[in-house]
Write a structure and sequence with these properties.
Elements lengths: L4 E4 L3 H18 L3 H19 L8 E9 L2 E11 L11 H8 L1 H8 L3 E6 L4 E9 L5
Antiparallel strand pairs: 1-2, 2-3, 3-5, 4-5
């Protein structure tokens, strides 16, 4: 199985590269074609968010194999910028981030787990994980 891969996202072509790299890693982990497509689409949605984000460098998508209780999987993560938190906001950062980025909600629906970890008042780490389930 391959090690961590990083794709720097600066333009639309980099989104395609991220999608291809995610599909290849998913294939190497052992995912079937349908799950390879889900993982590559989720990765490209994160890459698209990064491509449209301004003022934060480096914009990179990090893909890596994952394991949990012996089960293999794949993890895709990135650090993104979002509108600063207002003092009177009643929503938590994760809810606001999802509302600001509809692509993020779509990506989260394609995987088994998703984590949004605020880093400060305008950055958050997004992590998507898809687990390989044994064939029946």
């Amino acid at each position: 199985m391959s090690a961590e891969r990083r794709v720097y996202i600066n333009n639309d072509l980099d989104i395609v590269t991220a999608r291809m790299q995610a599909r290849e890693m998913a294939r190497q982990v052992g995912f079937g074609t349908a799950d390879q497509a889900r993982i590559s689409l989720a990765a490209s949605e994160l890459a698209r968010i990064l491509a449209w984000t301004h003022g934060f460098e480096p914009r990179q998508l990090i893909m890596s194999p994952a394991t949990r209780d012996g089960a293999p999987g794949i993890q895709v993560s990135c650090l993104i910028c979002f509108d600063p938190i207002s003092e009177d906001s009643e929503n938590n950062e994760a809810e606001r981030l999802v509302k600001q980025n509809h692509s993020l909600e779509g990506a989260r629906q394609l995987v088994d787990e998703s984590f949004i970890e605020p880093q400060d008042n305008k950055h958050a780490r997004i992590t998507l994980v898809k687990w390989l389930t044994p064939s029946k």
